[in-house]
């Protein structure tokens, strides 16, 4: 096993990681931040869209020629509260909301997956693009909004009473990475938090092809990463 440094909030780190990485079977875009106070990445992107989507967008396109099987991008059932603004992706005009910014980034993950799959098919590539979500797992991802009371409730009541185990959450991603599935499948627990792992639904906004195509073009412009196939 080889471990390499990768900072998805820094495109120079993403490019360096991709340059140093040899052939890859499966790419799992799993890193992310959730509902954090407003901040920007090294490249000036709003931190959640920058880390959760744009970093993964660049990494995936840079690694595509080296991939042999599939790309799995981890979204969230919270994508349902998201709205992707192509005019203000980085929250420069809108009043910032930590949760709505998170929802936008997770919706972006699904739009990215569908557009990637469309492009792979058009290019005649056998690669697959899939997405997964863990439900609500008890991890240290929660509780970083900057609201002391809300964060404490999320870490205690949310993680303690509502959340499932990290193993259960990881199971969804492993299923997407290993099973015989169709491209653009979205994998998760049947009942959002709980239930059998399998294909699950997504919001109407996550099915909007025009937004997926527009987001792709904007992401390519912002990151300089082009579809290489």
Structure description:
Helices cover 41% and strands 14% of the residues. α1 runs parallel beside α2 (47-63), α2 runs parallel beside α3 (98-122) and α3 crosses α6 (209-223). It has helices at residues 11-20, 47-63, 98-122, 148-162, 166-178, 209-223; strands at residues 24-29, 67-74, 128-132, 186-191, 194-199. With 229 residues, the protein is α/β, with parallel strands linked by helices. It has a five-stranded mixed beta sheet, sandwiched between helices.
Features:
229 residues; alpha/beta; five-stranded mixed sheet; 6 helices; globular
Strand and helix map with partners:
Blueprint: H1 11-20, E1 24-29, H2 47-63, E2 67-74, H3 98-122, E3 128-132, H4 148-162, H5 166-178, E4 186-191, E5 194-199, H6 209-223
Parallel strand pairs: 1-2, 2-3, 3-4
Antiparallel strand pairs: 4-5
